Amino acid sequence: MSDISEWYWRMRMGLPPRSKDREALKRMAPELFGLNSSNELEFDYDFKGRFWDASAFRQEVTNWLQTEEDRPLVTVRDGTCPQQDCPLRLAGRPGQIISGRSDADDGSIVIQLMTVAGGWKAKADAFFDMARKVHRGKGPIKDILVTDPFIFLDKSEESTTGGLDNFRKYLDCLDIPRSEITIHQPPYAKGKKVGSGPIWRRTVADHGNRNGYRVRFSYFRTVTEARFHDRFYLARHTDGSVSGLFGPSMNGLNDKSFVLVGELEAPTLKRLQDCLDGWH
Predict the structure, then answer these.
(1) Model-level pTM?
(2) pLDDT at 36
């Protein structure tokens, strides 16, 4: 069954749209995702089972696309996570529910899947795996935006080094065309004009040249000139779509602290894009 037909049967069965369903519809009917389409949305989706004209069918599909995809759940017990560095394993105590909701009398819980990593190797691997999943799976990239105020600094707060090398590894996780890519840097980043900033840009540009693509640099602007404390990594793909993930600073990937790494959900990503000049 092709992607084109899968979305239709999921809608007929009352199932929420997946990312691949949205992408299939975007390829087939990009008009549904236009700037003006959101003005006509009816968020109370109720599938009627039949359509009397083309406009009614369009409206039903548009409403369906606004429903939330069910997030995957996993059942675990405190202290039993198979990952050696997982807080559920390290800090779990009998009868203690760390997150999620109670699922059974034996103390098991149901949690929403989210990547938690601690220890330098586990953390770096988790971040790069997430970058490949979130960014690379959505096609070639033409722009990257990083909000990390410490992006230019190679040394972390815990005095470990590797920020530059980690950013180059991040680039290697992406599907970059053999032409060029633009990296939008934070205008408030430490050392942006002297010292670490120029060194960072030169090193990243050299990495791009060695891998067959040119790197352009720019500073992003926010609509309200606000700064970001959190570390967001956005990628604009050649088809105009945007993917995003959150995580630690690049220079913090080698620290021993625990971090959370994950994909920015659609509502959060849209709100973030609305704050960025030229990204909404």
Answers:
(1) 0.59
(2) 52
Closest CA to 270 of 40, 17, 38: 38
Strand order in the sheet with 141-146: 115-117, 259-263, 242-247, 231-237, 141-146, 180-185, 214-219
Per-residue model confidence (pLDDT) at position 4: 61
Closest by CA to 236, choosing from 170, 172, 143, is: 143
| In contact, 55 and 86? CB cutoff 8 Å | no
Q: Given this model, what pLDDT does residue 12 score? A: 74
Q: How far apart are CA 63 and CA 38, in angstroms?
A: 10
* Pairwise CA distance, residues 138 & 116, whole Å: 23
Q: What is the DSSP letter of 121?
A: H
Q: Which amino acid is at 140?
A: P
For tokens 């979305």, name the residue.
7
3-state secondary structure of 196: helix
Tell me the per-residue pLDDT of 230-243, one tens digit each, with 9 for 90 and over.
899 999 999 999 99
